[in-house]
Amino acid sequence: MNRVIRTIPRADGAVIDGLGACGVATVHEAQGRIGLLAPYMRPIWPGAAIAGSAVTVSIPPCDNWMIHVAVEQCQAGDVLVVAPTSDSDAGYFGDLLAGSLLARGVRGLVIAAGVRDVRTLTEMKFPVWSRFVHAQGTVKETLGSVNVPVVCAGQLIHPGDVVVADDDGVVVVRRQDAGAVLEQSRAREAKEAAVRARLNAGELGLDVYGMRAALVKKGLVWLDEAPEP
Amino acid sequence: MNRVIRTIPRADGAVIDGLGACGVATVHEAQGRIGLLAPYMRPIWPGAAIAGSAVTVSIPPCDNWMIHVAVEQCQAGDVLVVAPTSDSDAGYFGDLLAGSLLARGVRGLVIAAGVRDVRTLTEMKFPVWSRFVHAQGTVKETLGSVNVPVVCAGQLIHPGDVVVADDDGVVVVRRQDAGAVLEQSRAREAKEAAVRARLNAGELGLDVYGMRAALVKKGLVWLDEAPEP
Amino acid sequence: MNRVIRTIPRADGAVIDGLGACGVATVHEAQGRIGLLAPYMRPIWPGAAIAGSAVTVSIPPCDNWMIHVAVEQCQAGDVLVVAPTSDSDAGYFGDLLAGSLLARGVRGLVIAAGVRDVRTLTEMKFPVWSRFVHAQGTVKETLGSVNVPVVCAGQLIHPGDVVVADDDGVVVVRRQDAGAVLEQSRAREAKEAAVRARLNAGELGLDVYGMRAALVKKGLVWLDEAPEP
Amino acid sequence: MNRVIRTIPRADGAVIDGLGACGVATVHEAQGRIGLLAPYMRPIWPGAAIAGSAVTVSIPPCDNWMIHVAVEQCQAGDVLVVAPTSDSDAGYFGDLLAGSLLARGVRGLVIAAGVRDVRTLTEMKFPVWSRFVHAQGTVKETLGSVNVPVVCAGQLIHPGDVVVADDDGVVVVRRQDAGAVLEQSRAREAKEAAVRARLNAGELGLDVYGMRAALVKKGLVWLDEAPEP
Amino acid sequence: MNRVIRTIPRADGAVIDGLGACGVATVHEAQGRIGLLAPYMRPIWPGAAIAGSAVTVSIPPCDNWMIHVAVEQCQAGDVLVVAPTSDSDAGYFGDLLAGSLLARGVRGLVIAAGVRDVRTLTEMKFPVWSRFVHAQGTVKETLGSVNVPVVCAGQLIHPGDVVVADDDGVVVVRRQDAGAVLEQSRAREAKEAAVRARLNAGELGLDVYGMRAALVKKGLVWLDEAPEP
Amino acid sequence: MNRVIRTIPRADGAVIDGLGACGVATVHEAQGRIGLLAPYMRPIWPGAAIAGSAVTVSIPPCDNWMIHVAVEQCQAGDVLVVAPTSDSDAGYFGDLLAGSLLARGVRGLVIAAGVRDVRTLTEMKFPVWSRFVHAQGTVKETLGSVNVPVVCAGQLIHPGDVVVADDDGVVVVRRQDAGAVLEQSRAREAKEAAVRARLNAGELGLDVYGMRAALVKKGLVWLDEAPEP
Predict the structure, then answer these.
(1) For chain E, which terminal residue's Cβ has fewer other Cβ atoms within 10 angstroms, N or C?
(2) Phi and psi dihedrals of A174, rounded to 5?
């Protein structure tokens, strides 16, 4: 049954913003290397970086009708997440829909398909992570669902999950775990800051991380020169 | 027989420029969603946007001899369209050829293969849409033809057809249809402008486009909350 | 046997810098069209252009331990070259390692796999050519070797070979050939400069290169108009 | 937390076998075009056709340790479903593991990664659907989980869901829906049988399905000859 | 305007069969290396080899309605050629349509998209060359055209052109050129037969083709042993 | 300088045959997981399995002239290894060349590009591992070299190295290491035979390999049922 769920839970706004400040790589590591969307999901302009609550759209191939339906369910701070039920490179989304989302305070779009009007989207500074850029239009004939769990670029995303996206890609954090993951992300950042200072000052990672003994134990050998072939 | 056709028809200059101003996505929609080249055709620098008359080159794989032949057939306002007879990622084109084309007033290059010297091409502001960036050189051993119909990135292009290219990709308009397509493109733009204003002001596409009844008729259901799984 | 070779030969610094100034396309042509890495090796930010001595890393899939080992073997003017023994899109490298390399004067990274923290790497102006951008982390469990010959993106690279990289991709020059290739590159540049001036002034390549007779001999025909189909 | 769940629910055996007899295309249609794995999942030998209860494995890239763990959780009639947490083309599975699974009555393997020993697997008539064939080995260093929900080739699969696989690919049916989907599949088969007889006898689909009026209404025009271009 | 052209010209049946007997590689060479469809077009079962007159279908992405329309336009000896207007991996075609085509004497299908029911199609010995195998269904909502020129897998195909397909792929021959191409193909076959006999008897191609002088002239050098590195 | 080396070292024939009997996966493991060509190298017919001494060809893109030159350097028991200097999907090789190689006792072809006449090659039982099947012909204009080290599908191959190929792909063994690798391969086979017997009899790999303690130490947890979500 195709359906639109009107009410979804959302994570705490400060937690969401905190995750966005940490960025994709840190959040992904902090939560145990899960939740990362496939690397073909790329920003259409460099430097975009957002976090928000997922409003999800399960959508047929080559048909964008349900995105129009989904706009109504979005509120400020959300990220629209669009997943075709079968691979499609069609251009589901352009500047008109972006204007509509911006009017509602939506922070960006994550779509495992194509988008168009990328120059205008860039001028509007509307953040988009997509698999394709393609001017090919879609039809409006077949239903899908809004705010159901979807698999987007290889990851399961529930409505209200936190989506973090930047130049490294897109990661999803379960809504229920958002607070804990933020803590772990900040702990990781703090640890990395200390390491970073030492590395930037010229200390070697081998020493900072104390790797030498383990390498020797595994059998690594240092030779002054390459042996004769 | 390999041949070079010296005289080709061209569309009206004002029409060509008008189509360029409308852009790829609008022109593609306006002419009934035909003529769009494959989405792997990408600009080598962002923001390039051109329209011009196609001077076409049918060229063997890994051999760029005929591009040199084609330059002589180009005039101001043209776009060079290069299609290998078999897929090739070789770098057929670099800054020397670009300088030669610029000297003749050519507006850009559309090539279903590779190009090189992209930094210099970017500095020269010479617009290129290509499938690959590759420094790999080509030979000059085998003939092809200039100003014959070619299939380029999946689309049939005749010499003199109008090629429109921007950040969304490349679309071809039959020369004979250029005037009509421009009218349809402008009509579409006008209609979109009105819609855009309403959407930017916060009206929903569901209402602007009057979609609600059709969605209900198809069976879409709105629920306040997700049902128990 | 997994090993780290401490002492590698390096080419003359002035020669390396000269090759860098010539750029990838010219060097590749000048040495007879060999040594070009696959075109999927792309810079993570446009405009980066380097040359340096290769410090090579042969590394298991999804495991970046040996990069930490390799840092210690790098000195100012080097380029780190990382080649997994089996294809991997994992993110082997991020801003911490970049800071460590910058502290040693390393000029950049060439990696036939993924990297992450690309926004920070861009802000640091640390040049990277990679096959993927991917936040997916790696483990530190399995050894590899440093400063052994590696196949990276389809090319054999020895420690101490000269690696040249720019917006056109990456090319390797055998250390022993570096001087000769620089001479040939400069000769090619000089020749191209003369040609470029003539082409920019509007002379045709057909005349500058004297191609007309060969084209006619091969059978090319110029027709004033397209024949009836 | 990495975990192995020992007890999973399974669908009724007769229902599972019934779904297998219907085949992937029919089941996929019957359940409303959901649950189909990506088309890169191909059988390693033609003609294999199975259905069974999913025992799921979430597994790190390039590491097959958890497959050994999963074998113990398999029983007769099961299908092992393996999903790396990040794309990997490594060969996770070969004839030794297949022998172990056959000894337990497992019906086959669905793996969104690589396998090896394909000649022996073919001789053993052990059915495998994989994304790659690759002799590249994996390590046994990092944990994953068994019998947790996984995303495999784009589809969410729960332990105990019914997996149907044949030459057309792989489809998953929610365990709770298996009975209903079997009924719908059989209804579809019955309907198709009647249509097939008429089509094979030379009746046109246009008439069997009664499409002519709708085509005319949409504006389709039949012309005796192609108009002049 | 979407249209169905009822009457198309066809080449002589004996010529078509003659081209089929020559096979794809020979015909492609004989007509000057043109007309070859992209190599991603593969037979769904090995050994299929056909030639026939193209009945062409231009079809929207993810919509197979027009295939049903096209069946009516097919007659014995035809090959159905289906080209989506935008890339699609959906399964447009299955065993029901195959039965319908077989009832009309159609020789096979060439489709630049996906098909399903491949086991049944194989059992029916219905020849299909497709880009994908995919169970994903299509809708029946949008019109296309039948018997108009289409670009299929990179080649322009007119209704009535001769399509030749075997394990090497698919090649199209212009209907008007079919007789001449058959003559050239047979001439090539005769020449190859003589060469084949000599090569099979152990004569070297270098001598049979008389290549030695040209190789020496180009500068090739034979050395008894590899020089010291 | 383009050159043909006439005399190359070869490994002992019995060792080569022994490696062939062990197969790709075993040899690859036995020599420490090195030497495996990329997984896109696939046999054109299933069941082919060979081993032989590499006669190597470095060849320009889209030009097969040097294969004719290489035939003369082949002797009984050799495998022809062809590597374009830049990626090419052209069909470099067909049944005429296969006949010529068979007349010399050559065991097969490994080519990181395309081949054609696959039906005839299959009937001739000539083994080929290629990246593409493509009828597209090549030219004979540009030199390459025979019996120089080449990078083929990601691996460095020297003339006289042992190439082993079967349904799992292709692996190269350094000529100097062939004897030792054969011993290691046989040792691995012996060990696997014992394991295989136990696994086929129903013992678990967890017990045969003694993995349980390590899994527990890493933190793996067995639960009787899935926890509440």
Answers:
(1) C
(2) -55, 135
